[in-house]
Amino acid sequence: MSDTAPAQLLAVLGRGVVDIAVPLLSADDLGVTRGDGCFDAVRVTYDARGKRAHYLEEHLARLARSAAALQIEAPATASWHELVTTSLAAWNTPGEAILKFVLTRGLESAPSAPVGYLTITQSPDHAAARRGVTAMTLDRGLRSDAFTEAPWLLGGVKTISYAVNVAARREAANRGVDEAIFRSSDGFLLEGPTSGLVIAADDRLWTTPTTGTGVLASVTIAALFAAARQHEVATGEALFTPADAYEADGMWLVSAIRGMLPVVELDGHAIHHDPAVTSVLAKATGFPGIA
Amino acid sequence: MSDTAPAQLLAVLGRGVVDIAVPLLSADDLGVTRGDGCFDAVRVTYDARGKRAHYLEEHLARLARSAAALQIEAPATASWHELVTTSLAAWNTPGEAILKFVLTRGLESAPSAPVGYLTITQSPDHAAARRGVTAMTLDRGLRSDAFTEAPWLLGGVKTISYAVNVAARREAANRGVDEAIFRSSDGFLLEGPTSGLVIAADDRLWTTPTTGTGVLASVTIAALFAAARQHEVATGEALFTPADAYEADGMWLVSAIRGMLPVVELDGHAIHHDPAVTSVLAKATGFPGIA
Questions:
Q1: Which of A99, A152, A171, A182 to mutate against chain B (most B CBs within 10 Å)?
Q2: Domain containing A142: what range?
Q3: Does A199 share its domain with A262?
Q4: Which of B124, B157, B187 is the last residue of a domain?
Q5: What does the alpha-carbon distance between residue B50 and residue B55 come to, in Å, rounded to a whole number?
Q6: pLDDT grade, residue B1 (50/70/90)?
Q7: What CATH number does residue B32 fall under?
């Protein structure tokens, strides 16, 4: 939250662009009374190359998977695409922005259809984080295989029930650390509260396996790994301990919005960081390099 | 959700009773974009004895504790009381109702104060559940001591991030079972997704300890246990396994709204049930007895 409001736009399925100053949601909406819904977020850039919503298809596909896992009737992807087109046409703020899709189950106490909308919000400046962040691990309390046969735990589902994620970020901030990273109760690094994890080691790029761990499948990491393989850099999935990370060649928190954030310190231990490598990874997925 | 809308009323802090058909919340409210807020629920009865909000003080105290744990600036309790008084005066539907308090952190992208409101909603008929429910255990994935030193996991905080609770209820319903009961990864019964747990064994009433388990402190169980001790029935906190429950003298899921729901079957095993005991427990906390 900044001291002044950033530029922001609201568009609602079935209605188009509407005034964001007018309340949208019922007090009885399950999205707020139960956190019962899902979301996804896409980076928008508006520059000399025009307006672009990055990896839009992939994020909409993930949103549809989240809705299916919650047994919420998902709007047709074409409806979302149409709403994005209308919204981008109305968006006139240069620079980076966050396009967020939200889908709630609808009203709690009366028959209702799901509610779907998107917001576009001017991004805060991520330049400092893109040069490097400090991080601390926080125990998520769940084993790295806890989600294997427990679909009700909603592993890998991007629900709007993010209070623990928000609390983890608050805990890190309260301790003067930039970022939290969840670790499993059996000691493995999982993901950040709003980011995925990439580690460079043994001449490969690695990320956390999603099966069993509950970790969200990162659209940006998938794109990064596809680009890496095209350049003959091998990729893989593996569980790393914090001690493994201390010996790694590099470590990044990866977010569709913020990009590749190099972790330069984990739980007080310095992590190896080569800014040139971060620049390569960032540019491979459409983010600016670092100086 | 019923096929027709129940009677419902909305009142907002600082505004009083307003039309619930008019949207209240911004699309950018953290309550919906992050499930970042808390709630509590109180049973309202309107009968020959007048209108009553049961254990109102205790629920408002718990709401204030939830807000403090989330570091949300809580409205003065007196403001909530005033809003409840105004709302009950406007409530004219006889029978049972649910008074729900919701407090969100406010807007995500612009400076804002927390948003606080209450709804009163006509209750569905709980008579069948009050005579007996079937239940199944679902692994919560967390050890019974997982919350001991992990405040970011928000144990015992009644957040609106309830997607897993809703998914657990859906899982039970999909399997043809009335209620879900979470068990810890080390095998102990914890609580229901929207209820606490009471077991009768060894001439005592027992409930799940809240310390370390993440279990919500139940207002209704506290009131029940105070009443029990007045009648020389001992009470205590202990962790039970499902196998312990099969041998118990009785087991109840306890909710401020629904009352004492006797569990008559757990994971396919019959649980001992004496309707006369259930009636005594129900009446001790203001609920109707069962025939």
A1: A152
A2: 128-284
A3: yes
A4: B124
A5: 15
A6: very low
A7: 3.30.470.10
CB-based contact A28 B119, cutoff 8 Å:
yes
Distance from the A4 Cα atom to the nearest Cα atom in chain B, whole angstroms: 6
Q: Which of A124, A145, A175 is the last residue of a domain?
A: A124
Q: What is the pLDDT of residues A5-28, one digit of tens each?
A: 899 999 999 999 999 999 999 999
Model pLDDT for residues A142-155, shown as the tens digit of each residue = 999 999 999 999 99
| List of chain B residues whose C-beta atoms are within 8 Å of the C-beta of residue A36 | 162-163, 166
Helix (H, G, I), strand (E, B) or coil at A57: helix
Query: B27–A20: do the CB atoms touch at under 8 Å?
Result: yes
Q: Residue A145 contacts by C-beta under 8 Å, 6 or more apart in sequence?
A: A212, A213
Contacts of B85 (CB under 8 A, 6+ apart): none
Assigned domain for B57 exists: yes
Cβ-defined contact of A162 to B36 (cutoff 8 Å): yes
- Across residues A50-69, what is the average pLDDT? 98
Closest-CA distance of chain B to residue A232, Å: 39
| Domain identity same for B18 and B98 | yes
Q: What is the DSSP letter of A32?
A: H
Q: Is residue A203 part of a domain?
A: yes
Nearest to B185 among A5, A143, A164 (CB): A143
Q: Specify if A289 maps to a domain.
A: no
Chain B residue with Cα closest to A23: B26
Shared-domain flag, residues B149 and B238: yes
Residues B118 and B41 in one domain: yes
Give residue B291's pLDDT. Answer: 67
Q: Are residues B160 and B278 part of one domain?
A: yes
Whether B51 is covered by a domain: the verdict is yes
pLDDT, tens digit, for every residue of A196-247? 999 999 999 999 999 999 999 999 999 999 999 999 999 999 999 999 999 9
CB contact under 8 A, A141 and B153: yes
Chains A, B: CB contacts within 8 A come to: 222
pLDDT at B3 over 80: no
Domain match, A147 and A259 both: yes
Task: State how far the Cα of A290 lies from the Cα of A128, in Å rounded to an integer.
Answer: 10
Nearest-CA distance B143 → chain A (Å)? 7
At A186 the three-state DSSP class reads coil
Shared domain for A64 and A144, answered yes or no, is no
Q: B37 Cβ partners below 8 Å, 6+ apart?
A: A32, A163, B30, B31, B70, B72, B102, B103, B104, B105, B114, B115, B159, B160
Question: A-chain residues within 8 Å CB-CB of B39?
Answer: 33
Is B132 found in the same domain as B110? Answer: no
Chain A residue closest to B101 (CA)? Answer: A33
pTM of the predicted model as reported, rounded to 2 decimal places? 0.96
Q: Do A163 and B119 touch (CB under 8 A)?
A: no
